């Protein structure tokens, strides 16, 4: 991710074997880098096929897709590309140390940095569906969401290209602002959804099965948001107070690795909420009447 993927020192003459822990100062404690490499391989082995499956699932079930699936599909595209960059990333870090490949890596990291934009769109879409259902009925047209997705892609590419060409310092403040804003919007939306769903069953012994499924879904989603995005939100404002070793050898590597895990967690969450029976029918090309996904 952003502050971890610093380009190599291009003033060095001749080729040298890159340090797998990136900086010489990290030699005394490279354990965070071990975690980083494990996460990268995990994302490639599980995250890439999971995101590919999500894209295929949504593309095959166009007529049954929920409104949020437009954003989920675009999120899966970014995450799949990021996971697919793992062999390039590892080869360049461990052997090539090529300046041009570092630029490509920073492009992929820039794209990953901005995936919270799509996650925020998903949360806002579910927020409108549950908290403001009347307004939501007037904005169900997916062309609106396609237009929003196109705007988000413009922002993602602008950010990623800027990071790739001008370097990480040029986008650090933007990244911090993006994470903070997205985090608080997502938390607000999900807490509002949970509050409305809880009120809907006040005085009742049981919850409607559809609302029960929606309630469980947003609780899980909120937990994942906190797990993936709370560490950088809590730590990054104080980054300047850390020593070089703490920042580049321990904290940054760890928190960005945790954020990278969202590339696998997000598609698995989507797949897990898909009805198994209908999903297997879809795998067999027999999904004529699958149950519609809930728009929350």
Largest sheet: none
* Number of helices, where a helix is a run of at least 4 consecutive DSSP H or I residues: 12
According to DSSP, the number of beta strands is 0
Oligomer designation: single chain
The average pLDDT score comes to 80
Helix content: over 70%
Shape: globular
Computed over alpha carbons, the radius of gyration is: 21 Å
Structural class: mainly alpha
Low-confidence spans: pLDDT under 50, at least 5 residues? 2-13, 286-296
| Percent strand | under 5%
Element-level helix/strand string: HHHHHHHHHHHH
Distance between the termini: 29 Å
Structure summary:
With 296 residues, the protein is mainly α. The chain is 71% helix and 0% strand.
